[in-house]
Specification:
The complex is a heterodimer of chains A (179) and B (217).
Chain A lengths: L15 H19 L2 H27 L7 H16 L4 E3 L7 E6 L21 H13 L2 E9 L8 E10 L10
Antiparallel strand pairs in A: 1-2, 2-4, 3-4
Chain B lengths: L2 E7 L5 E6 L6 E6 L6 E5 L2 E6 L10 E5 L2 E2 L11 H6 L6 E6 L5 H21 L10 E3 L4 E6 L5 E6 L6 H16 L14 H21 L1
Antiparallel strand pairs in B: 1-2, 1-11, 3-8, 4-5, 6-7, 6-8, 9-10, 10-11
Classes of the chains: A alpha+beta (179), B alpha+beta (217).
Chain lengths: 179, 217
């Protein structure tokens, strides 16, 4: 009998290069389709959102974590999710004084491993998918957040920094028995 | 040890998946002579035993077949009303089959959406703050276990009262849902789940669980 907490079917591990290249193919195809980098950013965010609303169930099912009570808790969980799905361990820093805003610093980012941005698309946010995923996933657990990139190593910054800001709790979307 | 059925309710309370695992079949066939010694009535377009319990035919059982042919609601295959047929002495002796009716899909949807407010009421009735809703509902013939995820989806399992480890099983079903329903790009959220892989993996899981349940007890 499978012991509680031990998965009979383990999460499958794949080579990150395959994932990186697939994502690269997606972004370059979007650039062809839209021509305008702003539109591509928007599309990536939308796709991320759609991924987020599904991936959250996977995360909850696998980790059986409890509901977050504050933003620090949320930050920790987002951090662990990055570890789980991308194998990277971003550092959580630069808390705002109200504890409602923080940054995720990525020393290395598997998504951008083989990427050099051409001059023509400097306004492209290559990893904008992340923003959408975080937004979608948090929304499903009744938390509205926004996130954006403040630094991007693809654009010559020393690290990649993703800022996450708490907007509000979605009280009316709370399932009964949880509020 | 038995797991009878599984229901998945969406966040808004709609039934998005239902699966009957083990169903106990209660069917009794018997030959009757005139006059019929049990009272039958018509209820919701079905013929129901109203009084007179005997030989495994219980009050509440439905008339399923007459002389080996299935009933079509309250009428026979040739369109004749059953009640009229049974009142006619020349049709005797007659063989009647009785049993517990299966829930129709509509009834299942109806029951599932009834559970939703019950769950909410339970959490509000609680004397303590921050109570969950109904987690276990117990009756003498079954136990209903409910697990609500943080995103509001409810997983219900109806099992035998003695069935162990149902909480763990519910979490495993959640994992299957995350894997095989949500990762299917053709599945849209909040819609009924029609994914073959989900169904077959679920079946496998329930069978395993039943076997292991026997071992541990």
């Amino acid at each position: 009998m499978a012991r509680p907490g031990v998965r009979a079917t383990d999460a499958k591990k794949i080579n990150s290069e395959l994932f990186t290249l697939t994502y690269g193919a997606l972004v370059s195809q979007l650039l062809k389709d839209y021509e305008n980098a702003e539109d591509v950013n928007r599309q990536l965010d939308r796709m991320g959102y759609n991924i987020g609303v599904r991936i959250i169930e996977d995360f909850l099912a696998r980790t059986s974590t409890a509901r977050c009570t504050d933003m620090r808790d949320t930050a920790e969980k987002i951090q662990s999710a990055f570890k789980m799905y991308l194998g990277v361990n971003p550092t959580v820093t630069s808390w705002s004084s109200a504890s409602d805003e923080f940054s995720l610093l990525f020393d290395q980012n598997p998504m951008t491993e083989f990427v050099e941005l051409p001059e023509s698309c400097l306004s492209l946010k290559y990893c904008n998918l992340f923003c959408g995923i975080i937004r979608g996933a948090c929304e499903m657990v009744q938390l509205e957040v926004t996130s954006w990139f403040v630094q991007d190593s693809l654009k010559g910054d020393p690290t990649t920094e993703l800022r996450v800001k708490f907007v509000k709790k979605l009280e009316d979307a709370m399932p009964a028995g949880e509020d | 040890m038995a797991i009878y059925s599984l229901y998945i309710l969406s966040k808004s309370g709609g039934l998005i998946y239902q699966y009957d695992h083990t169903s106990i079949k209660v069917e009794v066939e018997k030959t009757f002579s005139y006059p019929l010694d049990i009272q039958l009535t018509e209820q919701n377009k079905r013929i129901v035993v109203a009084y007179g319990q005997k030989d495994g035919i219980n009050v509440g059982h439905n008339l399923l077949a007459v002389n080996g042919t299935q009933l079509n609601g309250t009428s026979l295959e040739d369109g004749q009303e059953v009640m009229a047929f049974l009142a006619n002495e020349s049709n005797y002796p007659v063989s009647l089959k009785f049993g517990r009716p299966k829930l129709s899909t509509n009834e299942k949807i109806f029951l599932a959406s009834m559970f939703y407010p019950l769950y909410a009421i339970a959490s509000q009735l609680s004397p303590e703050l921050k109570s969950s809703g109904i987690e276990v509902l117990e009756a003498d013939t079954f136990k209903l276990h409910c697990f609500q995820t943080l995103t509001g989806i409810k997983f219900l399992i109806v099992a035998e009262p003695k069935q162990m480890n149902v909480e763990h099983l519910l979490r495993r079903v959640y994992e299957l849902y995350a894997d095989f329903a949500l990762k299917n790009p053709f599945y849209s959220l909040e819609m009924p789940i029609r994914c073959e892989q989900f169904e077959s993996n679920l079946q496998l899981l329930l069978e395993q669980q039943e076997k292991s349940g026997v071992n541990t007890v």
